[in-house]
Prior knowledge:
Blueprint: H1 3-43, H2 47-68, H3 75-85, H4 93-105, H5 113-136, H6 138-141, H7 146-154, H8 174-199, H9 222-246, H10 254-271, H11 280-283, H12 286-289, H13 295-314, H14 322-337, H15 345-361, H16 364-372, H17 380-397
Amino acid sequence: MTKYQQSLYLALYGILLSAIIGGLSFIFIFLESNLSHTLWNHLLGKPILILLTTLFGGILIGFLKNRWGNYPEVAHHTISELKQKQTVTYTPVLKNLTVALIVLVFGAGVGPEAALLSSLVMLSVWQSDKLRYLFFQQEEFITLKKSEQLKRMLHPTKYAQTYQKNLAPTHPNWKQLKIFINTLFVFNGLFTFTVLMKLTEQPSFISKMGTSNWELRDLLLFMPLVLIGLLAGKAYLLLKKQMKKIFNFWQNSPIKKALIGSLAISLIGIFLPSLLFSGQTSLGQVPDKYLHYSMFFLLIVVLLKLVFLEVCLQTGWVGGDIFPIVFASILFGFTLSQVFSSFDILFVTSVLASSMAITIIDSPIGVALFIALFFPVNIFPIILLVVLCFFIKKRLLNK
């Protein structure tokens, strides 16, 4: 086999594996969306069924934590392990996705992104190990029958070679080639995921908040709004710290602890079902409905959503916090826009939401890009201006 043939073979194999990863991601989202929708459509309006179902979910999650360990694993833990060891253990990826799916389907106020991203990191390492095996075992591999080759290529756990620094290629152009290849695989996985989502007509994660006609005079409010958002974010971080202390018990009793989360989910499901899950399914209704409620009521809803998020996270109903925080931040922005009714609503909302979410998540560029997806294009420069303020603040504080 020539070097050209070998490179082509590896590239096609990597494309196949990345398509499989994209397909698994789609299956997870598809199941989460459809099972949640089906289950809760039958439960809503029936308090006793909601209570019994969520209690069963809590027992199931606690049981699986006793049996399998502390799953689902969130993304920053997996990424941190990858940075330290240059590899991660990917054999528990199905356990990770299974527990995450149960957490989401039974109504926890968390998002799918943390467990899914964690699993994607595991699967990406798996893909690399499979490719590495084929690269280093090519001489033996080409002598095998086609059926045996296919078996080794698609076997989920065997025929993989972990990263070893002493075996890594040292060619000066290897780093650039690796970046190009990994980018190709990422886009292929995203393409597969997107195509499957479109073919099955799955709803979008993103809801547009409307149109904006902001003017220069709106900039007079910019800094006060940034400060209000920053203070709101700091208040949530204090709440988070206190909630962690409050729930620092029953560390070795995951079923008991998960049942507390079950009670919280059942109460939300009975009285405020729009706050179930991460909030992304309800976010599209906010621009049309927020004026129907008082500012005081909406502030209570924002607070409840954030408390609900923390109760879930602290009682073992683990998941992503980005979607719930963005939901609460945008709703907070719409709430305070009632005070500044003579100014552009989406200008006020976007500045408050960006400032609050960036303060909480502490990832200015990532949060800004994510929040910008919910707003019209002409709001994007305003969100970037919020990011600039936080970079200046960070630079000044580090001096």
